[in-house]
Design a protein that fits this description.
Butyryl-CoA Dehydrogenase, subunit A, domain 3; Claudin; elongated; 5 helices; alpha+beta; 7 strands; two-stranded antiparallel sheet; 222 residues; five-stranded antiparallel sheet
């Protein structure tokens, strides 16, 4: 596989991994809507860990969620998926640094490098999928409450933290797909070696028995 493609895939995976780390502590996963309000004195915004409020003077006040078990199930699941995403991205980043062709690790064994790069690509894909599921599930609950006419609580809109998460998932999946292809290409190169006979290189398929018999005669076989 082209080393440039591997480097681009590594950059995409690394960028996606960094953006997961940015999205996870971001406070603006959902922001209270101003739709239908003539005068807005305060804005409430939340993420997976805390709820914050700011008034018209710019004063911020945040409090962490007091109990894990008292949270909604989708918030707990989103927390777990985001943490798993970071772990998968870490494994993928380490594997990609070892498996790319320009790396000095593992020596000149390019077949092994391709397999390591392919495994790293799988980790990046899992990272992207975990991130996409987490932020999409969170966004689904926001939109469901927003359009529910009987919802009695505060209506929220999608915040910037979810957009960062979506971008992170797309980059991680794209980088992982490129690295996974490197494993397949390396395996094909292993089994498509040129046929050698008597010091000559024959790039086509191996000669059949009849061709060899006509060349060397019947006494060549017992």
């Amino acid at each position: 596989m082209d080393p440039i493609v591997e480097v681009v895939a590594l950059i995409l995976g690394f960028t996606g991994w960094v953006m997961v780390g940015v999205a996870l502590p971001n406070r603006y996963w959902k922001v209270s809507t101003v739709d239908g309000n003539v005068i807005t004195t305060s804005t409430i915004y939340e993420n997976l860990w805390m709820s914050c409020a700011t008034d018209s003077t710019g004063v911020h006040n945040c409090r962490e969620f007091p109990s894990l078990l008292a949270l909604n199930g989708y918030i707990q699941a989103s927390r777990a998926l985001m943490i798993v995403s970071i772990v998968m991205g870490t494994f993928g980043l380490v594997g990609a640094l070892i498996g790319i062709q320009c790396s000095k690790a593992v020596g000149e064994n390019y077949v092994l490098k391709g397999r390591i790069a392919g495994t790293a690509g799988v980790f990046f894909i899992l990272q992207g999928l975990c991130t996409m599921v987490s932020v999409s599930w969170y966004a689904f609950n926001i939109t469901q409450d927003f359009f529910d006419p009987f919802y009695p609580g505060i209506r929220y809109e999608i915040g910037e933290g979810l957009y960062i998460g979506w971008c992170s998932g797309v980059l991680a999946i794209a980088g992982g797909a490129c690295l996974t292809c490197s494993c397949r290409v390396a395996r094909e190169e292993k089994y498509n070696l040129p046929y050698q006979a008597r010091g000559t290189v024959y790039s086509g398929p191996a000669p059949t028995r009849s061709v060899v018999a006509s060349t060397y005669g019947r006494n060549a076989y017992v």
